[in-house]
Design brief:
alpha+beta, Murine Class I Major Histocompatibility Complex, H2-DB, Chain A, domain 1, Immunoglobulin-like, five-stranded antiparallel beta sheet, about 30% helix, about 30% strand
């Protein structure tokens, strides 16, 4: 069923459960999403990314590959790109015909969405990881175990089981998929890293601010929620931690994070929050660690970290009394001055 889809080196859609990339590693991910409205209407989108940088897209009506980076065409010769477009057009046509037959044979219904992801991950020590996954209507469907050379169903529905059995019978396709993932993908990733090293090495420093979100009214025992908003950083890996009296707050129910989210300018943002008990008398700060900071950390203290304690309250009270005393003395002197001035002689 998914045979043409799973062979395409440029036709993959990302699954939501993709594992995080280790620091210093780089990934070539080839994505494809196909929406089948009915037997004669569909939308197909293809995209390739090196790391989180979009490098290629595909117009699936003509199977024309578009180069989204000035160096993205240098990995292959013009003839190789043209041959790849021809292969894509042939496989995509077969894939659409096969899917329509499967829907009819398995009594499936339109509309439905197929997403898939294939690629490789290159680690700093020279080792690599390979992945090949597919999903139907947002649910994990089937994946390829590259090391063992077998397809694995991700759930026990009839459609996934039949697809697994069908694909595992084609040993030639399994060998080709292993070669594409182990050799072709890794070689292309190394080539893109060489030609696009300046773009891939881009560094943008984070900007951070700390504030209290919706502080409770006076006398309310509810905790204060401190928020650290970090934005504008690139590349994606970042570490945000909270410090209480200079010591890092460990994981637990007090901490919450939005996860790393994209910005429109190809940078990232993150929000981390910390629940603080009222009247705790501690100091708090948000610490940001990112590769663009050159080994240093960005430390943002909360401007109202220390609530008023008894000593501070006494000091403020004495200060207010002193100001009142000065005001009384000035008033008395001004009044006495007016009394000492003799009245003016009446004019003729």
């Amino acid at each position: 069923m998914l045979l043409p889809l799973l062979l395409l080196p440029w036709a993959w859609g990302a699954l939501a459960a993709s594992p995080p990339v280790p620091p210093g590693s780089l990934t070539l991910r080839l994505l494809k999403t196909t929406v089948f409205h009915n037997a004669s209407s569909r939308n197909v989108e293809g995209l390739a990314l090196v790391g989180d940088l979009e490098t290629h897209s595909m117009n699936c009506r003509t199977c024309e590959i578009r180069f989204l980076q000035p160096w993205a065409q240098q990995g292959l010769t013009p003839k190789q790109w043209q041959d790849l477009e021809t292969v894509l057009h042939d496989y995509l046509s077969k894939f659409i015909l096969l899917m329509n037959k499967v829907v009819k044979a398995e009594d499936e219904h339109y509309p439905f969405v197929i997403q898939a992801s294939i690629g490789c991950e290159l680690h700093p020590n020279g080792t690599s990881r390979h992945f090949c996954d597919a999903a139907v209507n947002g649910e994990d469907f089937i994946s390829f175990n590259v090391d063992e050379g077998t397809w694995v169903a991700q759930h026990w529905r009839k459609l996934a089981l039949n697809s697994r059995d069908f694909l595992n019978q084609d040993k030639g396709t399994i060998a080709m998929a292993q070669f594409l993932l182990r050799t072709t993908c890794v070689n292309e990733l190394k080539s893109f890293v060489q030609y696009g090293k300046e773009s891939l090495a881009r560094q943008e420093r984070p900007v951070a601010v700390v504030f209290a979100r919706a502080p409770p009214p006076a006398g309310t025992p509810a905790p204060v929620l401190l928020v650290c908003r970090v934005t504008g950083f690139y590349p994606r890996p970042v570490r945000v931690a909270w410090l209480q009296d200079g010591e890092e707050v460990g994981p637990g129910g007090r901490l919450n994070s939005s996860g790393i989210l994209p910005n429109a300018d190809l940078t990232y943002q993150l929000r981390s929050s910390l629940a603080v008990g009222p009247g705790a008398g501690h100091s708090y700060a948000c610490r940001v660690q990112h590769s663009s900071l050159g080994g240093r950390s960005l430390l943002i203290p909360w401007g109202h970290s220390r609530p008023w304690g008894p000593g501070l309250a006494v000091g403020i009270t004495l200060g207010a009394l002193a100001v009142a005393a000065v005001a009384v003395v000035l008033w008395w002197r001004m009044r006495r001055g007016h009394q000492d001035v003799p009245p003016e002689e009446p004019r003729a």
